[in-house]
Amino acid sequence: MEKMNTRDALIEAGIREIHTYGMQNFSIRRIAASCGVSCATPYKHFKNRDEFILAMFRYVNTQWAAIHAKIVEAPLSAKERILETCITYIHFLVDNASYHSLVLTKNENLTESQIRERSEISKESRNLIDAYCREVNMPEEDRIRKTFLVRSLLYGAAIMIDNGQLENSDSTYAMIRTTIAREFDLP
């Protein structure tokens, strides 16, 4: 396995820091200590706290984009692509529990550029849903409602699996897949 570079190690530690302590208690000193580097080292990679947090959002987005690109490249129908994106996104959040703490951070704790970057992670799934809804001539009101329901289900399911309210099992993912498919009248 390839050793993680210092910048990425700091980012991963920063994401875990937010997961454990929250954005208000974010400590660059604690992050440096967890990586076994000096307190000055993070500032060699990030100009300030805000740039460090922005880098964390970009890192998570890059991780998801690489996974999502494989779905987009696969020979799937628009319907199948929505389902695969949704299920894979839940797996992504569950497999990286600290990522969803970052993704769900409240806006009042973020700069405008951080808010924009955070929203990038769900851009592709929104685009897939929008494209499908346009393809089937779905009224705008229905598209908005369905997008809200599916996104709520994705984040809710990831949190419920993470905290043990739902079992992390094939049957849970099958239930989620069926629920999403029904919402879009997908096979």
Q: What is the arithmetic mean of pLDDT?
A: 89
Main sheet makeup: none
DSSP strand (E) fraction? under 5%
Low-confidence stretches at least 5 residues in length (pLDDT < 50)?
A: none
Count of domains? 1
CATH topology: Tetracycline Repressor, domain 2
Give the beta-strand count.
Answer: 0
Q: What is the terminal separation in angstroms?
A: 40 Å
Shape: elongated
* Rg computed from alpha carbons, rounded to a whole number of angstroms: 18 Å
Structural class: mainly alpha
The assembly state of the depicted protein chains is single chain
Helix content: over 70%
Write down the CATH class: Mainly Alpha
The CATH architecture classification is Orthogonal Bundle
Topology as H/E string?
A: HHHHHHHHHH
Number of helices: 10
Name the descriptors:
Tetracycline Repressor, domain 2; 187 residues; single chain; mainly alpha
What does it look like?
By secondary structure, the protein is an all-alpha fold. It has one domain: Orthogonal Bundle (Tetracycline Repressor, domain 2), CATH 1.10.357.10. Helix content is 74%, strand content 0%. The chain is built from 10 helices and no strands. The protein is elongated, with a radius of gyration of 18 Å. The termini are far apart. The mean pLDDT is 89.
Summarize the structure.
By secondary structure, the protein is mostly helical. It is 74% helix and 0% strand.
Summarize the helices and strands and which ones pair or pack.
Elements lengths: L5 H16 L6 H8 L5 H5 L3 H25 L4 H18 L1 H7 L8 H9 L2 H13 L4 H23 L7 H14 L4
